Amino acid sequence: MQINFSGSTSSLIVSASEEIKKLQKETGKEYLFLNRGVNSVCNINLTQVIPKIDFNSDDVQVYPMARGRSGLRDAINKEYFNGKSNYNNIIITAGGISGLDISFQNIKVDKVLLPSFFWGTYTKVLTLRKTVYDFYDNIFELGERSDQLRNTAIVVCDPGNPLGIKDDDSAIVRVIKQLSDAGVIVIVDSPYRRIFYDNSDSFYHDIGMHENVIIVESFSKSVGLSGLRIGFIHSTDNVFKEEFAKRLLYATNGVNSFSQVLIENLLITPEGKKAVHDFKRKTSDDIALNIDYLIKLGLLPEELYDGRIPMGIFVTVNKTEEELLQYRIGSIPLTYFTEIHRDKAINYSRICVSITHEKFIKFFSPFKN
Questions:
Q1: Cα dihedral 83→89→94→97 (10° resolution)
Q2: pLDDT band at 6, cuts 50/70/90?
Q3: Cis, bond preceding 159 (omega within 30 deg of 0)
Q4: Rounded Cα gap, residues 61 and 9, in angstroms
Q5: At 364, is the secondary structure helix, strand, or coil?
Q6: Is residue 56 domain-resident?
Q7: Which of 64, 194, 271, 290 has minimal CB crowding within 10 Å?
Q8: The CATH number of the domain where 206 resides is what?
Q9: pLDDT in tens, 224-239
Q10: Does position 9 have pLDDT exceeding 90, yes or no?
């Protein structure tokens, strides 16, 4: 048969996992899959939440609304936007990647600008959608020339992937307003942020009311439920939302009803709120301990961090993929996450630091020497 080739490629992260699984089976020894972006400190405990869901109800068994359950969208408004937005500005998606893909399809721009160190899937999706992309090193420099970027969309990821660098919120809010006011579309994709923040955080409200800002979120990282494939987008642009909803409808016919009901219960019930709080506290505590341990071992490359302490589930270390694999630690070469700084990235690797501190020490302690 004749095929319309996408021009995109498969994920190196997936193939690396397959290779590490093979090595683990062959050697009979445990390996750390730090190549993956999965929170592995603990699973969220749903024991007290599941009994609150009636699996025999239409809530679970019938097609969901195209834009998502109104109760869930209202709960997201209260949890993420301090109740100051509107549930009509929120559309439920099949995970963050679904929100990004449909957003990229939906906007009409000359090109999309990505961070110079970026999540590899950005370029895969943009290639699939035949969208031109380029890169920027510093978002604050973009704000200074916002008038030149009117036919451009800017992707912001903070804390970042693969470095985990976190910029000052107030500075980010200022530059996003500056870009939006100049007619530049800003897509904010920060799926790691809410592991470390609660509903007192005003960041999404502070940026989300600007007409050219699209917020893409998922519940994969913040509550550890990547298997549910559920997230949301927020926009105040009515035309964008109308077209987004159509594309989502004909791609999915609605996002999984059970996932929506479960997330709603996590956001609004006492049992759900406790489960989320406990998950985030344990996960963020061990991530912080692991990053501190890497600093003590001298494994964070100074030329990339310049004294800054990373935040998020990913960091970059000054060891190659091969060097880490000698100690049964899976990683991804940093060259996978950049196209313009490959010479700088060649001796480094990205790892996930969302793993129990005890196990992290066990595998990284050999680097003390």
A1: -100
A2: confident
A3: yes
A4: 36
A5: helix
A6: no
A7: 271
A8: 3.40.640.10
A9: 999 999 999 999 999 9
A10: no
